[in-house]
Specification:
CATH topology: TIM Barrel
Number of strands: 9
Strand order of the largest sheet: 1-2-3-4-5-6-8-9
Shape: globular
Radius of gyration: 20 Å
Distance between the termini: 29 Å
Strand content: 5-15%
Number of helices: 13
CATH superfamily: Glycosidases
Bound molecules: alpha-D-galactopyranose
């Protein structure tokens, strides 16, 4: 999959929508990819749950007998992205499977801080309280991301914007300092264009438009200060997609090294890992990890899902037709998950965490991106909260 194109089209739509002021605030389920993109890009919009498959579950899922996180406990923590309104369905399944959680949307700037003088803590607090109660550690996600940058933040001079950014980071980092062990400080600021280093206004970054790339260093500096003030140990990450591709990775490492050379603290790099059945190969994943480690960064896998449509062509906008999730596909996906986790386990001393971008196949963003309504099956549990062959295959992944 070329996630780059997903994100750049989302960004363009977001920008156009913001400029035109035409993003609907409350809409029925989107009927097209572009509507889905515009809705998802709208900072004020609720999470796009309306686009998911109809819920089939009839009651809360049972706990798993054997903990998958426990299986990897000596190697890395295992996380899941979560929405607060899913917690009641999965109150037992989550803590019996994972030991880490990321807020899928609730901690993004536009969600938690919709106006300069207004914080909306409730959804993020629900997740954080669940995590506290069940001894899950959280990944903070994300202090700066172009798709969830609220308009109030980017108004004013560069100094004004930077000051508002500091206030946001101070407040949010402090509030969840007891339950987070790392933050995605900056998400997706590297350009997908061959001749550009940073995502600019034409790729949806209103922060770049307001401050050029200075906001990146500022965000890391403010996060480092907020962590220091909290007295907690919280790592600061840069997070992005397609880092298994050499060109995107080189730019990312250039930025990260330049920040460090200026004395800015950055502890690690997160590869989102929106991957598919064939790409990237185990060798490409290994090269990516090696490059980060050589440069002295911790590594995390922050948003793993495995699309079953590897032939989607993002450049030509040609998508595979929907296919059923039959036994052959389920087995092939199990083999694929296993080969990927074998690479992670082999590199466990450098990998801090692996997080699945969702729990069940009926609640995945890949059901509406890039094709609204085309069922994808990228996760470890099916629509009925039952573990798939991929889940069981992971118990066969052994320490080398
Ligand atoms: C990016 C973001 C995530 C999420 C996905 C799509 O990867 O980092 O927070 O929005 O896109 O679900």
């Amino acid at each position: 999959m070329k996630a780059s194109s997903i994100h750049s089209s989302l960004a363009l739509l977001a920008l156009a929508a913001m400029v035109n002021g035409c993003v609907p605030k409350s809409t029925p389920p989107p009927s097209s990819q572009s509507e889905a993109a515009a809705l998802q890009a709208d900072p004020a919009a609720p999470p796009p749950t309306a686009q998911y498959k109809p819920v089939k579950r009839t009651g809360p899922a049972a706990a798993m007998e054997k903990s998958l996180a426990g299986h990897f406990a000596d190697q890395f923590t295992l996380g899941v992205a979560m929405e607060p309104h899913y917690l009641s369905d999965w109150a037992q399944l989550i803590p019996s499977t994972f030991n880490r959680m990321t807020a899928e949307n609730a901690m993004k700037c536009a969600r938690i801080h919709p106006a300069e003088d207004k914080y909306n803590y409730e959804p993020a607090d629900q997740l954080a309280n669940f995590a506290r109660e069940h001894n899950l550690v959280m990944t903070g996600h994300a202090l700066v991301w172009h798709q969830e940058t609220p308009p109030w933040l980017v108004q004013g001079s560069p100094a004004d914007v930077s000051k508002k950014l500091k206030a946001h980071i101070d407040t949010v980092v402090a509030r969840y300092a007891d339950v987070t062990d790392n933050w995605d400080v900056v998400n997706e600021v590297i350009s997908d264009k061959a001749d550009k280093m940073y995502r600019e206004g034409d790729e949806g970054s209103s922060m770049f438009a307001a401050m050029k790339e200075q906001y990146i260093a500022d965000a890391f500096k403010y996060a480092a200060a907020a962590v220091k003030a909290s007295g907690k140990t919280i790592d600061l990450y840069y997070n992005d997609y397609n880092l298994a591709k050499a060109d995107k990775r080189e730019k990312t490492l250039k930025m990260a090294k330049e920040l460090r050379a200026k004395g800015v603290r950055i502890d690690g790099i997160g590869e989102q890992a929106h991957w598919n059945m064939t790409w990237p190969s185990p060798a490409e994943i290994q090269t990516m990890i090696d490059d980060f480690v050589k440069a002295g960064f911790k590594v995390k896998i922050s948003e793993l899902d495995i699309s079953v449509y590897p032939k989607d062509d993002w450049d030509k906008k040609v998508w595979e037709p929907e296919r059923p999730f039959d036994d052959a596909l389920a087995q092939a996906q199990a083999t694929r998950y296993k080969e990927i986790f074998e690479v992670f386990v082999k590199n466990a001393e450098h990998i801090t965490s692996v997080t699945l971008w969702g729990l069940t196949d009926d609640r995945t963003w890949l059901d509406f991106m890039p094709v609204q309504g085309r069922n994808n099956y990228p996760l470890l549990f099916n629509d009925l909260d039952q573990p798939k062959p991929a889940y069981f295959a992971l118990f066969d992944v052994k320490k080398p």
